[in-house]
Amino acid sequence: MHKDIATPIRTRDILEKYGFSFKKSLGQNFLIDTNVLKRIVDHAELTDDSAAIEIGPGIGALTEQLARRSKKVVAFEIDQRLLPILEETLAPYPNTKVIHEDVLKADVKGVIEKELGEIADLMVVANLPYYVTTPIIMKLLEEKLPIRGIVCMLQKEVADRIAAKPGTKDYGSLSIAIQYYTEAETVMIVPKTVFVPQPNVDSAVIRLTKRKEPAVSVINEGFFFQLIRISFAQRRKTLLNNLTNGLQEGKQKKEEILSALKQAEIDPGRRGETLSIEEFARLSDHLFPIFA
Ligand code: SAM
């Protein structure tokens, strides 16, 4: 077995050798604790027949652990300066492939077909760059990739919002957008001390397990997501207020909105944050014919 990349000393040596300086703008906080890395990989429940897709390998700390526990790892890295480093650190792991691309612009589905076509079990596992956590997760879910789920490190505050339940202060459009596609749970809280440099915020690891079908079925998905955004536009206002302000010609159609709320059995005086995803789905289907 090769020496772990993610020890404080080895990480320092690699960074010094290449004269690497961290770019805050790319969310570069590298993990230097192999126990934390191993626990992240545990949560992905990989087997020898699984493949992992990593976003942002850095110097390969997580990539190495994934390579040891799966058939193949494909990692998207935006920073060209890391490529020669990864070539050295990942040399002992021929089952790894680094793709030099911004994951937000990459054709991830195409890469999966080309690189991982014959592998049935795919997991995304990453210590995400915090400046783009939400866009990356939403891209991976909206593109309906053939993955089992996502295990990723992110800001604790975002993890709280993603996994939040109705009626709590963290519950909002992000919770619903992600819980629509997945079952979300926070599986680890991670201290700042296991990163270099240390981030300014607390971190957590979440596991998103993709549902076979979305949590609810609605007549029009686009309208459902629009309704959710509108319902949380001003958190302190009532649902009726947000709907009449946010829906097109909402004020003129107030009576129709009230009737849709009644048919969906939702009190117009409630706030968006109290509605379950099923209630939003019901409301969406009653409102859609009015605004289609
Ligand atoms: N996986 C490494 C670790 O755990 O030590 C590094 C994680 S670091 C938080 C985030 C990594 O994502 C950095 O290597 C950074 O260069 C890379 N990155 C930032 N934005 C990216 C993007 N849009 N696409 C791909 N990689 C990105």
UniProtKB/TrEMBL annotation:
Listed CDD domains: AdoMet_MTases (cd02440)
Keywords, in A-Z order: Cytoplasm, Methyltransferase, RNA-binding, rRNA processing, S-adenosyl-L-methionine, Transferase
GO terms, molecular function: 16S rRNA (adenine(1518)-N(6)/adenine(1519)-N(6))-dimethyltransferase activity; RNA binding
CC terms in the record's Gene Ontology section: cytosol
Pfam families: RrnaAD
Its EC number(s): 2.1.1.182
Record carries keyword 4Fe-4S: no
Domain Ribosomal RNA adenine methylase transferase N-terminal: 36-212
EC primary class: transferase
Subcellular location: Cytoplasm
Major localization class: cytoplasm
Task of the protein: Specifically dimethylates two adjacent adenosines (A1518 and A1519) in the loop of a conserved hairpin near the 3'-end of 16S rRNA in the 30S particle. May play a critical role in biogenesis of 30S subunits.
Similarity comment: Belongs to the class I-like SAM-binding methyltransferase superfamily. rRNA adenine N(6)-methyltransferase family. RsmA subfamily.
Protein name: Ribosomal RNA small subunit methyltransferase A
Origin species: Cytobacillus solani
Gene: rsmA
